[in-house]
Amino acid sequence: MKKIFWTIVVLVLMAGTGVGGYEIGTHKIKVTSNTSTNTQPTSTKTTTKPATTKQLDLAALLVSLQKQYPTVKQTYVYTQSKDPNGNLNKTGYYTAGAEFYDTRTNTPPDGAAFGADSGGAIEVYTTVEDAAKRVDYLKQFQGRPDLDAGAADQFENIVIRASSKYNTADQKQVLDYLIAQVKAQ
Fold it and tell me: What is the value of pTM for the model shown?
């Protein structure tokens, strides 16, 4: 009984101190353990490895997208004055972003900023964790008739979105293509 009690206490303490970590595999987050078979005494001081962040040339990425898919007719990179949600550079939100309009969605842009419904978006976050929170948030709306956020995928600190207005095959192709381009940069 005492062994079970102390095992639970140790597990709770490990969870509270952040032992364990996140590792980016392909474009999914994998939870990994920091266990060791070392029997030597260890220090109580812990260090945290900073999350890897990727910077992108969004304009070049959009040019590549238009070459791959001639149906992508309009693109733009977010600026302070051209940000669809007004969240650019706010704590916990994206530090850069871009959107594109693809005629295959049959959802023409409404004004200068047209949203991910018209094709898709690329959002760059400061941390992997902020990007993961965004993907989790978007998944809450998938399949809702009133506000379908479309498909979202993550690679490191980058979130890639594809409109729910694509057919399933086109949506997957766009996501896969953009993830490959992000990895290549």
Answer: 0.70
What is the C-alpha separation between 154 and 99, in angstroms, rounded? 16
Amino acid at 58: L
Model confidence over 79-115: pLDDT tens digits?
998 888 889 999 989 999 999 999 999 998 877 667 8
Rounded alpha-carbon distances, angstroms, from residue 144 to 47, 53, 110, 141: 42, 31, 21, 6
Residues of the chain where predicted confidence (pLDDT) is lower than 50: 1-51
DSSP letters, 80-135, are SSS-SSS-TT-TTSEEEEEEEEEGGG-----SS---GGGEEEEEEESSHHHHHHHH
Any idea what DSSP says for residue 64?
A: H
Q: Which residues contact 64 (CB under 8 A, 6 or more apart)?
A: 181
End-to-end CA distance of the chain: 54
Number of Cα atoms under 13 Å in the Cβ half of residue 126: 7
